[in-house]
Amino acid sequence: xxxxxxxxxxxxxxxxxxxxxxxxxxxxxxxxxxxxxxxxxxxxxxxxxxxxxxxxxxxxxxxxxxxxxxxxxxxxxxxxxxxxxxxxxxxxxxxxxxxxxxxxxxxxxxxxxxxxxxxxxxxxxxxxxxxxxxxxxxxxxxxxxxxxxxxxxxxxxxxxxxxxxxxxxxxxxxxxxxxxxxxxxxxxxxxxxxxxxxxxxxxxxxxxxxxxxxxxxxxxxxxxxxxxxxxxxxxxxxxxxx
Length: 242
Description:
Layout: E1 2-11, E2 19-25, E3 37-43, E4 49-54, E5 60-69, E6 74-75, H1 81-115, E7 119-120, E8 123-124, H2 129-157, H3 163-188, H4 199-208, H5 216-232
Antiparallel strand pairs: 1-5, 2-3, 3-6, 4-5, 7-8
Helix pairs in contact: 1-2, 1-3, 2-3, 3-4, 3-5
């Protein structure tokens, strides 16, 4: 049997899920800090598993009190939780970037269509240079993020080290998503922050992108550390080969 207790944890969609995955320390005496945690499947109807409240914008708060599950619910071996998580998070971050590209493209389409129909101050919005810059910048950024995402996926498919590429697109892709939606809202004016368009909801969800699957600050530090390590070793950083 596996047993665990937590006061409060946030878990996405725990109120509608049949089970959740608990990442917990099972080997506290292990010298290697990356081998101290394990992953355990916990059915949400297990005695002691309590949904404390549903947070409307994102997750659920749950409390685990003396929760016991069969040892067969252990994912992998004891102490392999960190390794399993990292194997999942790498490709998972690429999936996020793919979704963000779709969202950014949707916001871009809305923005372009709005500029061709909204007449203000003597001309269509599409005729105004500031709005044209919104469109040009957004198209350039979306394409850049798309190519960076494809390159990271290509490296993973070929079994190459893509950690730097994944960290880069996680940070840059989230920024592109936010900025494109922000411009689309600006073009729509007050309409953009109402529920009459999907933009206000997209904007709120885009802000999460800089937090989940690792906050921007962590990925930014990782990028710098890995690049500087190459120079410390007398090498240099080549984006095509790193």
